[in-house]
Structure formats: C-alpha cells, structure tokens
Amino acid sequence: MLPATEAIESEALYLPVSEPAELIVHLLNSLEPYPTAAPAQVEKFWVNEAHRRYQSYLQGEEESYSADEVFSELRIDDDLSLFS
Fold first, then answer.
1. Which of 1, 17, 33, 61 is at a distance of 20 to 30 A from 53, taking alpha carbons?
2. Which residue from 27, 23, 1, 3 is spatially nearest to 13, judged by alpha carbons?
3. In this predicted model, what pLDDT tens digit does every residue of 32-70 receive, in sequence order?
C-alpha cells in the first residue's frame, strides 16, 4: 500500500461510527458507478449477450458445465479460501 493510502486508512479507523460506512459507499461508487443506461437498454444488452453465448455454444465454440459442476467448484474455492 502507498504511504498516502496507509495514512488515509489510519485516519479512517478513528472516524465516528457512521462515517466509515459513508466513506466506503463513496469509494465503492467511484469504482463501480451505477449504469447510465436505462434499464431497458441494459436488459437488451444482456439478452443480446445471452443469445451470442448460446449461438457460440451451439457452434461448439463454448463448453458447457452442469450446475453441479459449477457449484462443486465454488464450494472447493470457498473451502480453499479459508486457508489463505
């Protein structure tokens, strides 16, 4: 961590109870701002993306995995993260 970041972190730890949460919200919003597109545009994008991925799968360009495989892999990842 940069020294300036460490100084900010150190100061943040001594903020009154409600202020760290407000700071976190502001920082998160700066990383991932809310979409500027209308919900209908976002939905249209995801429908198009889902269609593109499905067509890619039908053409043999993408592999598929069962839900059991996906969730099993997630459980393994979660279990391993306990030891990190």
1. 33
2. 23
3. 767 677 888 889 999 999 999 999 999 999 888 899 998
Within 8 A by CB and 6+ apart from 64, the residues are 57
Amino acid identity for residue 59 in this structure? Q
The amino acid at 68:
D
Structural domain contains residue 61: yes
Domain limits at 56? 39-81
What tokens does 58 get? Answer: 């039908």
Instruction: Decide: 26 and 20 in contact? Cβ < 8 Å.
Output: no
Residue 81 has pLDDT above 70, yes or no: no
Which pTM was predicted?
0.44
